[in-house]
Task: structure prediction
Amino acid sequence: MYVKEIKEVKDQLDLLKKDELVKDWELPYENLLTRLSAAIFFLDPSGDEQSSQAIWDALSGHDNFSYRLNEEKKLSSLKYRITFSKEEKEKNFKKELNETPQNA
Result:
């Protein structure tokens, strides 16, 4: 099924791969997706933290973009899980806050 917003993200990831910022990316169950907010992309950055930041900056233009480490490894073995859902963004933000050391 063709979903314009999903195609835009895929094209952007392909460009980031061509620019050697992304080593690999995946979109499981792509043929079942009807909207970007239901999509879960996975990716491996090519380089260091600086190149990862360039990836996040490039994708941040999409509504409700968020990312986190792919700890579950159920749908993909790639390092990061990328989503565009409001609920997932809130969940990732709360998780990030809980993992940030608090100053006493």
Q: What stands out?
A: The longest helix spans residues 4-18. The chain has one domain: 4-89.
